């Protein structure tokens, strides 16, 4: 039997920063996936070192051994802040656990294994969560998103997650941002509770603007100004990556195409990638018959 596990990527984070010095992010999972397959008597295919480490650490955690053929299929851009490594790692952990024992790991167990490898996005948890991506001290479910779409743009280049989180100035910059970040958390949390996409967009925008002092995004002010003219509810960014997203309430997409065209003209520094849906996170296990189980 071939075991397949899909994990969503992200369009950065809805909010990221610190609260009382503790790192956290609010996940922004989207319908752009990485899929890990466990194939009997197969070979490692397309497996990055971090994913191979996830396999080894999962087997060590479960105190079992085994040789598995692992294939990773993903078109998530790497080094952009779209949780490509977190998606690969979390899907690999669950797939290997199922192949080795027939049992699923809990989401907290996956988080612990992933965090032992690198700072990790919590996209594998169901729903939208507030998650300490460095030490795992915060793991709080906030709710499920209302229907929203995000036009994803790339400002270019790559950011290494490990190097970014080792910056000597990062703690001080995050501390200086705590007041607006707390306000952003409140807005996003209220938006999730009430199903109000505009509150989510406002909170994400507040966090994106605060993050300009930490990792500058070219054209962000122009993107904010132009996207509002076309009915967008806000902008989210990869706080430790290069992508940014223009957020639309799904029932008010009339200005979407024109907005992308105008941003391409006014902001050539950022390149449009694709439009995705903001979704509830979580892993999808796919059987040989094509059926899916969350």
TrEMBL record:
Signal sequence range: none
Domain GHMP kinase N-terminal: 54-118
Gene3D superfamilies named in the record: 3.30.230.10
Coiled-coil portions: none
Listed SUPFAM superfamilies: Ribosomal protein S5 domain 2-like (SSF54211)
Tree of life domain: Bacteria
Record keywords, A-Z: ATP-binding, Kinase, Nucleotide-binding, Transferase
Keyword ATP-binding appears in the UniProt entry: yes
Catalytic EC class: transferase
Assigned EC number: 2.7.1.177
Entry's Gene Ontology molecular function annotations: kinase activity
InterPro entries attached to this UniProt entry: GHMP_kinase_N_dom, PduX, Ribosomal_Su5_D2-typ_SF, Ribsml_uS5_D2-typ_fold_subgr
Keyword Nucleotide-binding set for record: yes
Name used for this protein in its record: L-threonine kinase
Organism: Sporomusa sphaeroides DSM 2875
Gene behind this protein: pduX
């Amino acid at each position: 039997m071939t075991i397949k596990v899909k994990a969503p990527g992200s369009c950065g984070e809805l909010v990221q920063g610190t609260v009382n010095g503790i790192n956290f992010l609010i996940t922004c999972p989207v319908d752009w996936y990485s899929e890990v397959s466990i194939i009997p008597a197969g070979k490692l295919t397309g497996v990055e070192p971090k994913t191979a480490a996830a396999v080894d650490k999962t087997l060590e955690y479960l105190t079992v051994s085994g040789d598995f053929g692992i294939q990773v299929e993903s078109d998530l851009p790497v080094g952009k802040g779209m949780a490509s490594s977190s998606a690969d790692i979390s899907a690999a952990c669950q797939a290997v656990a199922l192949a080795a024992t027939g049992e699923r790991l809990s989401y907290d167990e996956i988080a612990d294994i992933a965090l032992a490898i690198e700072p990790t996005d919590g996209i594998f948890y169901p729903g939208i969560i507030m998650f300490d991506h460095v030490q795992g001290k915060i793991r709080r479910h906030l709710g499920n998103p209302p229907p929203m779409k995000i036009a994803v743009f790339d400002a270019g280049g790559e950011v290494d997650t490990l190097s970014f989180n080792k910056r000597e100035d990062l703690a001080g910059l995050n501390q200086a941002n705590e007041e607006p970040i707390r306000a952003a958390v409140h807005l996003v949390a209220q938006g999730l509770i009430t199903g109000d996409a505009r509150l989510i967009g406002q909170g994400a925008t507040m966090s994106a603007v605060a993050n300009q002092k930490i990792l500058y995004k070219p054209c962000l002010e122009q993107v904010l100004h132009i996207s509002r003219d076309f009915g967008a509810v806000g902008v989210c960014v990869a706080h430790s990556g290069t992508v940014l997203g223009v957020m639309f309430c799904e029932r008010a997409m009339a200005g979407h195409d024109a907005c992308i065209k105008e941003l391409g003209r006014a902001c050539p520094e950022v390149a449009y990638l694709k439009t995705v849906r903001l979704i509830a996170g979580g892993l999808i296990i796919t059987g040989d018959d094509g059926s899916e189980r969350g």
